[in-house]
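Quick start: what a row looks like.
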Amino acid sequence: MPPPLDGILETAIYVDDVDRAVAFYRDVLGLTMVDVSERLTALSAGPRQLLLVFKRGASMRLPLTPHDASGH
């Protein structure tokens, strides 16, 4: 039997327009920005939970763990 789920630490989305996506999550849903960088914005989504809004393609240049959401 798996342990009960009591939250999700991080959820990541990849978007073309980070400013527009962040504005929605901040202004409409009331999430608070906790960190901003060139490739992502992190928003608080509850106690110990983050929504990571990545600029699509920006994480493909990482040397050790490139990642992105693309494909079918």
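That is the whole record. The chain has a mean pLDDT of 85. The two ends are 33 Å apart (CA to CA).
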